[in-house]
């Protein structure tokens, strides 16, 4: 890693260390989209498969991809925690000594919202003034997620088909071995034919294991990474809805203030009741106006703060989306290239194996023709 202090280092890390790193980066960089860790696969713990070769290989591939994504992120790669994670020979001591500071630099816009009813807050379920830039982002990510999910299903189906084909090759090889016993004159050729089938089965198994442990794991990891971007856009939309909620509430306060001034509607009836009970109407009116003005000032400040925070979050969302696009594009290119090479190597090996046996079969054919002529 070019951003680390040492050109090369070797350290041991447990999965719990990765979890700690993830949580630490989440606190250190609250506005960054932290790449997700692989699933814990709890079902493996129930089955007792958490130490199986297949499970550990898939998890290792996912964890390596997690670190690569961190190292490619222009902001996250600058973290001292990440640097220590890569280089520290005494990681446990570092974890015990480190003190996490809340570096959140965008402002929580709770304030006025804390005093509002749940019914009022829940009424803002849609954005009134959607931004086309973020709509396009969401549509693009949704399409990517849709395509990846379908690819994942097709690859899973392909793996099952290859397992069935491996069993067919195994059965065919066994039958040709049996046939070699029954046909002594063709024993050599039939045995060679059986061995080629077994080699084909072996090569197919190697390809299938690669697709399962590497390629399918990559697709699954990319789906998880895509979901983090979807969550980021949801957070961004929620901030805009919060601002719109505050703005609408401010409009209601202005409307109520205008009604108090004009003493219209229900306020007119309230004024009559106050007159009958001996309450100083003018003083009560001024008190209500002061409360409304105070609430209005507070709302205006909250809206101003929220807009600044919202604009900042918008910029960071755009930045994170661009970073995601670059990382995703690089990963897809490399993964597709490797996938293609693995398939090419498989077919090359199959062709090579079957090509070797052709001269032997031709020789046996010629030998049989000569024997028949006599």
From TrEMBL:
Membrane topology (UniProt): Peripheral membrane protein
Keyword Cytoplasm set for record: yes
Coiled coil feature spans: 282-309
One family name in Pfam for this protein: Vps5
Compartments where located: Cytoplasm; Endomembrane system
InterPro entries: AH/BAR_dom_sf, PX_dom, PX_dom_sf, Vps5_C
Gene Ontology BP annotations: autophagy of mitochondrion; endocytic recycling; piecemeal microautophagy of the nucleus; protein transport; reticulophagy
Domain PX: 1-93
GO molecular function term, any single one: phosphatidylinositol binding
Gene Ontology CC terms: early endosome; phagophore assembly site
Primary localization: cytoplasm
Keywords (A to Z) from UniProt: Coiled coil, Cytoplasm, Lipid-binding, Membrane, Transport
Family (UniProt): Belongs to the sorting nexin family.
Protein name in the entry: Sorting nexin-4
Lineage: Eukaryota, Fungi, Dikarya, Ascomycota, Taphrinomycotina
């Amino acid at each position: 890693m070019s951003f680390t202090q040492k050109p090369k280092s070797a350290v041991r890390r447990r999965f719990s260390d990765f979890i700690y790193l993830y949580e630490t980066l989440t606190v250190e960089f609250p506005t960054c989209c932290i790449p997700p860790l692989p699933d814990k696969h709890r079902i493996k713990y129930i089955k007792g498969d958490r130490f199986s070769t297949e499970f550990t290989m898939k998890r290792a591939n996912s964890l390596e991809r997690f670190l690569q994504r961190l190292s490619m992120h222009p902001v996250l790669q600058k973290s001292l925690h990440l640097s220590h994670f890569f280089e520290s020979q005494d990681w446990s001591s570092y974890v015990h000594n480190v003190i996490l500071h809340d570096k959140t630099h965008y402002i929580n816009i709770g304030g006025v919202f804390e005093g509002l009813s749940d019914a009022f807050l829940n009424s803002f379920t849609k954005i009134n003034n959607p931004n086309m830039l973020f709509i396009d982002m969401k549509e693009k990510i949704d399409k990517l997620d849709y395509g990846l999910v379908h690819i994942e299903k097709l690859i899973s189906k392909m793996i099952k088909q290859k397992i069935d084909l491996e069993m067919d090759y195994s059965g065919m090889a066994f039958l040709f071995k049996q046939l070699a016993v029954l046909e002594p004159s063709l024993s050599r050729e039939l045995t060679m034919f059986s061995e080629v089938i077994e080699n084909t089965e072996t090569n197919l198994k190697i390809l299938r294991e690669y697709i399962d442990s590497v390629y399918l794991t990559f697709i699954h990891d990319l789906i998880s990474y895509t979901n983090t971007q979807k969550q980021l856009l949801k957070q961004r939309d929620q901030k805009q809805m919060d601002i719109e909620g505050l703005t609408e509430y401010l409009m209601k306060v202005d409307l109520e203030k205008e009604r108090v001034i004009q003493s219209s509607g229900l306020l007119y009836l309230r004024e009559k009741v106050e007159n009958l009970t001996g309450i100083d109407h003018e003083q009560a009116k001024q008190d209500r106006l002061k409360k409304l003005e105070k609430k209005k000032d507070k709302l205006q400040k909250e809206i101003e703060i929220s807009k600044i925070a919202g604009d900042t979050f918008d910029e960071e969302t755009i930045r994170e989306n661009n970073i995601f696009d670059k990382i995703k594009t690089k990963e897809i290119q490399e993964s597709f290239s490797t996938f293609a090479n693995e398939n090419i190597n498989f077919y090359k090996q199959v062709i090579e194996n079957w090509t070797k046996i052709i001269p032997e079969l031709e020789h046996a054919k010629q030998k049989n023709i000569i024997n028949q002529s006599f």
